[in-house]
Write a structure and sequence with these properties.
The protein is built from 3 helices and no strands. It has 109 residues and is mainly alpha-helical. The chain has 2 domains: 61 residues; 30 residues. The N and C termini lie far apart (78 Å).
């Protein structure tokens, strides 16, 4: 098995893309975009993380098994987020009468 040599130009382009992503993250954080702040920041973070995994961790040039392990890790993370969001969305829908803070109320004796 021969090692893949990545040109320095590729690393410089990835570095510039990561710096652009960092500046975009700071720009989004300093401006009020309403409900879009978090999704835009997460989108930028996902792109930056993908660049790091593909190029600096050499997953792009790795065997298929390594790519499968990396992809399955992200798929598992996505499933965990989906389960967490379903749980969050279902809060208080099982018994709406107990939606208030009854568990924290102190009864007078």
């Amino acid at each position: 098995m021969s090692d893949h040599v990545v040109p320095v130009r590729t690393y410089l382009l990835v570095f510039l893309a990561l710096m652009l992503g960092t500046f975009l993250t700071v720009y989004v954080a300093r401006h009020d975009l309403g409900a879009f702040n978090t999704p835009i920041a997460l989108g930028i973070a996902i792109v930056k993380a993908t660049l790091v995994v593909l190029f600096f961790m050499h997953v792009k040039y790795s065997p298929r098994l390594t790519q499968l392990v990396a992809a399955s890790g992200f798929a598992f993370l996505a499933m965990l987020f989906a389960i967490m969001l379903m749980d969050y969305a279902a809060r208080g829908t099982v018994n709406p009468e107990t939606r208030s803070n009854q568990a924290f109320q102190i009864e007078d004796k």
